[in-house]
Write a structure and sequence with these properties.
By secondary structure, the protein is an alpha/beta fold. It folds into two domains: 75 residues, no CATH class; 176 residues, Rossmann fold (3-Layer(aba) Sandwich), CATH 3.40.50.150. It has eleven helices and eleven strands. The protein has a five-stranded parallel beta sheet with strand order 9-8-7-10-11. Strand 3 and strand 4 form a beta hairpin.
């Protein structure tokens, strides 16, 4: 299977000419068998440029895509892709997962696989509403590169994330069920999900963007506070036990995300 139109040497030369470093993920990247299931398709995108979530522009080669059929003239739209942006926006979930972690939204299974690889995790429950997505994931062979003990941690449940109730306590809940970052219904849906799941800690896709809206006037002052104080303030404002990493300045991370989005002409809602 060919995933790039250039050889590595050509890619390095082109990336240098474009002024963007070649992206190399530190995370496990599954090898996907291309195919379709109903309205969904797995494909690859050749060499191109992509922005990160916390970082600037990258040159990316052979990027896997999950696409959904549309009724417009294009025929397909990208629903998920393993861009630097997508990977960076999910890394905190992978780093801080523990015990029983629940992932809402299967997608291409990237985050679920990397969470399962975290030695602090003993079980990963993945909630996916669409049986076609599950069928395509099973066809893709994405779990084939994982050791059997890691695969044994994973369980996929067909259910609606907004209604699902766990059968055991949840140590970390990660939610990525939206087509785009910063959709207006995110916080309301997170409240509904948490009312059912009652997770000890939560992280959701695009969390930093939503927190900017809540904390905007306080970010500079909170930057001087301890992670515990930041966590308490975020929970007081959001009503959710959201993940705040203890090994860095989270308010600065939030500002970095917003700064990059503004440099691309993207405004928060």
């Amino acid at each position: 299977m060919t995933t790039t139109i250039f050889d590595p040497q050509q890619e390095a030369v082109l990336a240098q000419a474009l002024g963007a470093p070649l992206y190399a993920s530190r995370w496990h990247t599954p090898s996907y068998e291309l195919g379709e299931a109903g309205d969904w398709r797995l494909a690859y995108c050749p060499f191109h440029l992509e922005h990160g979530y916390f970082t600037a522009l990258w040159a990316v080669s052979g990027m896997p895509l999950l696409m959904r059929r549309t009724t417009d003239v294009e025929g397909w739209e990208v629903w998920m892709s393993l861009t630097p942006h997508e990977i960076e926006s999910q890394e905190l979930a992978c780093e801080h997962a523990r015990g029983h972690t629940v992932v809402m939204g299967l997608g291409m299974g990237w985050v679920a696989s990397n969470i399962a690889l975290n030695p602090a995790v003993d079980r990963v429950t993945v909630i996916e509403r669409d049986p076609q997505v599950i069928a395509l994931f099973e066809h893709s062979g994405a779990l084939g590169g994982l050791p059997s003990g890691i695969r044994a941690k994973l369980r996929i449940v067909q259910a609606d994330a907004l209604d699902w109730v766990p059968d055991r306590s949840v140590d970390l809940l990660y939610v990525d069920i939206w087509r785009d970052l910063d959709e207006p219904q995110v916080m309301d849906q997170m409240q509904r999900i948490q009312a059912n799941v009652r997770a000890s800690c939560i992280y959701f896709w695009g969390q930093e963007i939503k927190l900017f809206g809540l904390l905007n006037a306080e970010l500079d002052a909170l930057g001087a506070q301890s992670p515990q104080r930041v966590r308490e303030r975020i929970e007081a404002l959001s009503g959710l036990p959201l993940l705040v990493p203890g090994n860095g300045n989270y308010p600065e991370m939030i500002k970095t995300v917003i700064g990059i989005r503004r440099s691309r002409g993207i405004k928060a809602r």
